[in-house]
Design a protein that fits this description.
Elements (H helix, E strand, L loop, with lengths): L6 E5 L3 H13 L3 E5 L2 H10 L4 E5 L7 H11 L5 E6 L3 H9 L4 E5 L3 H20 L4 E4 L2 E4 L4 E4 L2 E4 L2 H12 L4 E3 H9 L4 H18 L6 E5 L3 E5 L4
Parallel strand pairs: 1-2, 1-3, 3-4, 4-5
Antiparallel strand pairs: 6-7, 7-8, 8-9, 10-12, 11-12
Helix pairs in contact: 2-3, 4-8, 6-8
Length: 232
């Protein structure tokens, strides 16, 4: 397998499920460290380098949200996928707010999980291999490759999903974008829940843009957005 030997942090307190996931990923060539609770996951992350993290939401000794926030304090690059219960849509929103890149709903097939993992690992490898991709947005400098937004001397570290969204907006600045167009291109799917999570990321980006009054992300009610930036 081409992506083999990627190191996976798996935090799952249901150990029967955890071992099923670990064994299947190991069979595919992944190096998996299984943690039975959130604090153990944090301790393992502190001492090891991981390529991707799979976090259950409800765990003893720190839940998945706390683990994700701790990971994001140390790394903006490593992808985080939440393992969520089907009925807990609010958990999915909270997961994105705490730094998650994606979620997968239980029960899920191992093949689906592997496909999700592969998507993020390919993206991470591509980012490391590509030349620097950056954008000038008014007085702001955005490096998609490094996941950084620089405003004068202040540097903001972006999550992968924030960077993906901002990159799409930069590529289509000063024109009206329909909500479904943004969702399909950045999230790969247009549905109600993802629309709510997109609004979370829109709010985050707007906070950054306050540093330059000539840059704003305008809501076009009933349609979508327009990313207004100074024309060079």
């Amino acid at each position: 397998m081409q992506a083999s030997k990627a190191k996976v942090l798996l935090a799952e307190d249901d150990l029967s499920l955890g071992y099923v996931i670990k064994d299947n990923l190991s069979d595919e060539g992944y190096d998996v460290i299984l943690c039975p609770d959130g604090q153990t996951a944090i301790d393992k992350f502190d001492k090891n380098e991981f390529d991707i993290c799979l976090l259950d939401v409800m765990m003893p000794n720190k839940d998945g949200f706390a683990v994700a926030k701790k990971i994001r304090q140390q790394s903006d690059m490593v992808p985080i996928i939440f393992l969520t219960a089907k009925s807990m849509e609010e958990d999915k929103i909270k997961g994105f707010q705490s730094g998650a890149d994606d979620y997968i709903t239980k029960p899920f097939s191992i093949q689906e999980l592997i496909m999700r993992i592969e998507v993020f690992l390919r993206r991470t490898r591509k980012m490391h291999s590509e030349k620097t991709l950056s954008y000038k947005i008014g007085n702001l400098q955005f490096s998609y490759t490094d996941l950084k937004l620089v405003i004068e001397k202040e540097v903001f570290n972006l999550t992968q999903k924030e960077a993906d969204l901002l990159k799409f907006l930069c590529e289509h600045s000063n024109r009206i974008l329909k909500r479904e167009e943004v969702l399909l291109n950045v999230w790969g799917k247009d549905d109600y829940f993802l629309g709510r999570s997109m609004d979370v990321f829109i709010t985050k980006l707007r906070k950054y843009f306050k540093a330059d009054p000539d840059v704003n992300l305008e809501t076009i009610h009933g349609v979508g957005f327009r990313f207004n930036t100074p024309v060079a």
